[in-house]
Amino acid sequence: MSAATLTDERRARLHGRVKFIVFFTITWNVIEAIIALSAGALASSAALIGFGLDSVIEVASAAAIAWQFTRKDPELWEKATVRIIGVAFFALAAYITVDAILAFTGVREPEHSPVGIGIAVASLIVMPGLAWFEFRTGRELGSKSVQADAKQLLLCIYLSGTVLIGLLLNSLFEWAWADSVAALVVAVLAIREGIEAWRGDIESPLEVLEDLDHEEVTP
């Protein structure tokens, strides 16, 4: 069923689903941001601080979606909302890059962070399912802003994995540079996603999501 052929009842149900996703995303990421930023500050971890800031940006992105879907005609606000999400990606990339450079130059030396490892693992468990659910909803609605917000969640998955690797390498082998490398990888990903969001070119970066193009969506 395409966005053009959705019944009013189905569209209303999907709008309700978007609101639930937004509420869950904001709640989860507020908690995640508090933990990650606190642990990152204590450990002087550029990657972990970037992870926490990504959670803050995800809250802003979800809030933009919430605002859009409180409008009488959410579809009219698609372009503006997608642009806001694109700017959020760029802001994240800028901060992470600066913080990683400071770590590379020795201004900040990351320490071990068991709490950081724990929150990264928790995110890897929760985010994939939520991202898939939101992307599927946005695809059925034909909403680029909802799909762009789902890509924020996908970036969180990349970020969680990258940060986890950096933290583990630093903890196990005392490779302090791994934290900065992890942060820069995330910055590059954020720039790429920001450019795509700004252009309105929302493509699924996961093969499982690509399959939705060929899947018939049922109520």
Automatic annotation (TrEMBL):
Keyword Iron-sulfur: no
InterPro entries: Cation_efflux_TM, Cation_efflux_TMD_sf, Tmem163
MF GO annotations: monoatomic cation transmembrane transporter activity
Location in the cell: Cytoplasmic vesicle, Secretory vesicle, Synaptic vesicle membrane; Early endosome membrane
Bilayer topology: Multi-pass membrane protein
Transmembrane stretches, start-end: 20-42, 48-69, 81-103, 115-133, 153-169
Keywords for the protein's UniProt record, in alphabetical order: Cytoplasmic vesicle, Endosome, Membrane, Synapse, Transmembrane, Transmembrane helix, Zinc
Location of the Cation efflux protein transmembrane domain: 24-195
Principal localisation: membrane
GO cellular component, one term: cytoplasmic vesicle
Keyword Signal: no
Homology family: Belongs to the TMEM163 family.
Protein name from the UniProt record: Cation efflux family protein
